[in-house]
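hey so u asked for the seq, here:
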Amino acid sequence: MTATHDPAPAAGSAGAGSAIAEDAWDRAVAAIANAEEVALACHVSPDGDALGSMLALGLALRAAGRRVVASFGDRRFAVPRLLRFLPGQHLLVEPADYPAAPQLMITFDVSTTERLGLLADSARAAAELVVLDHHASNTGATGFGTLRLVDPSAAATTVLTEQLIARLGLPVDRDIAACLYTGLVTDTGSFRYSSTTPAVHAMAGRLIATGLRTDEIARELWERSPFGYLKVLAAALDRVVLDQDAAEGHGLVWTYVTRADRAAAGLPYEEVEGVIDVVRRADEADVAVVLKEDDDGAWQVSARSKGAIDVGRACTALGGGGHARAAGFISHASPEDIVEKLRPVLKPM
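ran it, structure tokens below
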């Protein structure tokens, strides 16, 4: 029999939930208990934290006999190849089949309604909209939702999701653990980022205790790519630019990937996410930026910082959002113009 992990510690004792009032957790539990159907949604182009959080709660609720529907609002609806190993994808429906006005809708890892894409109207029409998130940009006047479970100190949205599952009194089996662990390990950079606290390792331990094969998850996430990715990576590195005077002397390294690059290699957009992890290795730059042209011609901008520059604040100023060390935004300008707009807002922490 598949093991289940011990319940998560109460909010605050696990390094998450300190920014969330107890009555907010209680209201969320009550809303889920009273809903005939729970509609779950994560952000467009979902990453491991977003999709992992959504599928984890979906699986937990479905196992308890609850009606659940889950989706994300991409026009070209498809789970990214790197995440197709995740359990629970039978819960997913196309955006067109998602409830237009859910009784209860829960969003995961979504900092603004715009990040819901085609599901934004459903969020606006929902009778109760619960926002589960850990983005620092999802605070204050910019926040949305009727009930907000937002804690920027949480290492990943899956940390908060584990808390919610525990408060619902639901068990976490190996499939749910795989979803939660994927979000945890991706948003902490394989436990390399400063967000990796003792509580994060404790959570990982609880999940591994279910019988989780972490080596298999690591292989799916970081040790696989189509051959065409190497061609696209080579093209991106061939045009990489280093500006050591940018970011107030902390340095900027940047490059871009075009639709033509991907077409020549037969590579879908989702496969170029890893380019930023190679570019950011440059010792001479605190900030790394990769611009990726999507299938609609827009530039999806990913920014990373090693700790001196707050890229979350910079990307928020340009209409995006994220964390101090990892953030992004979308633009329709040229790559050169985008970088020129970004330079003045790259400020120290």
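Confidence is low (pLDDT under 50) at residues 11-17. The chain is about 35% helix and 15% strand.
lmk if thats what u needed
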